[in-house]
Design brief:
By secondary structure, the chain is of the alpha+beta class. The protein has one domain: Alpha-D-Glucose-1,6-Bisphosphate, Chain A, domain 4 (2-Layer Sandwich), CATH 3.30.530.20. It has helices at residues 18-26, 28-34, 141-164; strands at residues 7-14, 41-47, 54-62, 67-80, 84-92, 114-123, 126-134. The longest helix is centred in the C-terminal third of the chain and has 24 residues, at 141-164.
Length: 165
């Protein structure tokens, strides 16, 4: 019997200081370098990282057959540097107006607002990251996209740490 959740939980460990991993989540130019699934770029990442501050992110894909953009907006609910970040996430248009997930091809029942929780902790000189995305189920394309993004994050962190040595 399998237990289904309406959330995905991903844990990663990075051989880097916690402040660097925090910065990867909160500094727009760095965030743009790793966020999104493979093959996607992030042309826009606007972040007012404070409680009540807003965020707006665009992920885009360009191929010979087509181009696609997906926009997301949200509000920061918790900002406790360098160890906890909580924000809401909704699909939106380029102006930041919330749109229904179904209008972007998501299945019926996909929530209009989801919540991303990022907890960072130092363990033996490394940073442990636990990310929970409430509203995105384990085993979905969204969960797969997060795993691909975190693979890119790990590569970026490694190259950043190596460049600093």
């Amino acid at each position: 019997m399998t237990e289904e959740h309406d959330w995905v939980r991903i844990e990663r460990e990075f051989d880097a200081p916690i402040d660097l991993v925090w910065k990867m989540w909160t500094d727009p130019p760095l965030f743009k370098r790793w966020y999104g699934p493979n093959g996607m770029s992030v042309p826009t990442a606007e972040m007012d990282v404070r409680i009540g501050g807003t965020r707006k992110v665009c992920i885009a894909m360009q191929s010979p057959e087509r181009s696609m953009e997906m926009w997301f907006t949200g509000v920061y609910k918790e900002v406790r540097a360098p160890d906890r970040l909580v924000y809401t996430e909704s699909m939106c248009d380029a102006e930041g107006r919330i749109i229904s997930p179904q209008s972007m091809g998501m299945p019926d029942g996909f929530p209009d607002i989801t919540e991303v929780i990022v907890d960072l902790s130092e363990v033996d000189g490394k940073t442990r990251m636990v990310m929970v995305h409430v509203g995105v189920a384990e085993g979905t394309a969204g969960a797969g996209g997060w795993n691909q993004a975190f693979d890119k994050l790990g590569t970026l962190i490694l190259s950043t740490v190596n460049a600093e040595r």
